[in-house]
Amino acid sequence: MPPDIRSSVESWRAATDATGHEHRLWDDASIRALLADVGIPAIRGIYERLPEALRGIRADIARLVVLFRFGGLYADADTRVLNPPALFEHFASALRDGADAVVGTADLHVGAIRRPSNFLLACPHRSRFVRAYLESIVRDFYRLRIGDRLAGIGPLDARRLTKSWTGPRKLRALLRSGGEPWTIRLTPVGFVASARQTCFADAVLAHDYRGDWYDKSKAWTAVRDRALHALLDAPLDRCIVLLVALALLVVLAIAQGGSQGRATPQGATHSSLATGGGPHAVGGGPEPRSFILIELASAPPIVR
User: Fold this and answer.
1) Strand duo 79-81 + 184-186: pairing
2) How far is residue 286's CA from residue 292's CA, in Å, rounded to a whole number?
3) Average confidence score pLDDT of the chain
4) Residues 159-168: what's their mean pLDDT?
5) Which candidate among 30, 211, 217, 284 keeps its CA 20 to 30 Å from the CA of 260?
6) What pLDDT, on a 0 to 100 scale, did the predictor assign at position 1?
7) Does domain 3-215+268-298 have CATH number 3.90.550?
8) Cβ contacts of residue 279 below 8 Å, gap of 6+?
9) 207 Cβ contact partners less than 8 Å away, ≥ 6 residues apart
């Protein structure tokens, strides 16, 4: 386990020891044993067919299966607890008030458009929203013939598929659908401090987004190769446009590399960005992969 991920996991362990919550680590073997117990038979077959390149999708399905079966709080392993009492009180009170799910948001700054994401989720046992999420994944698998696209999938396509089929874009599509009378609560602005975005002084969680459920180096290679092939086959006027686009990609790559070396803003308590490993992927790869589940139902009330 990479040192920064180990530090994040230890922050959860310390938080749960202090509040009496139960702390569990789930790996690929335990997830496979659980898949048959969620009442959605097709989800197991889909999970078993996913190649290593789609380990991010395995992680997305795994968190939903565990949450549906037990209820509780899920967090990616690259999140760190900054204020345990405020964290658990927020989620526990939302579930006590009847929320079908509490969804974490990645906010650019105060007043920005909210960006709900599946890096942080809480729900009661057998949540209607989580069941609908899993059923939507199954429907899309057959409707979009995703099974035909799994063999030999490249890093760029794997990244797009993960985001749209099971990840944050799927989550936001469900929230926008309005087809069910769900009660969904979002974490407040400033609840999460992010290494990629604004750091809030009073944040309850730090999310040191690593995004390494796909191979970044291979993804950039695929972008380069596609651009070069398009350039060689294009007429002159299109070549000029493509060269400008390629120059912009180079500038973005340089800017991204520079942002990873910036100093952490004063008052933020998260670690710096790193690459490699896999904080929230389940199964496969050289590093042991796990994620965090806190069972809220077993927690004693928090007295301020």
Assistant:
1) unpaired
2) 19
3) 76
4) 93
5) 284
6) 78
7) yes
8) 2, 5, 8, 76, 77, 78, 210, 212
9) 76, 78, 79, 104, 106, 119, 120, 192, 193, 194, 195, 270
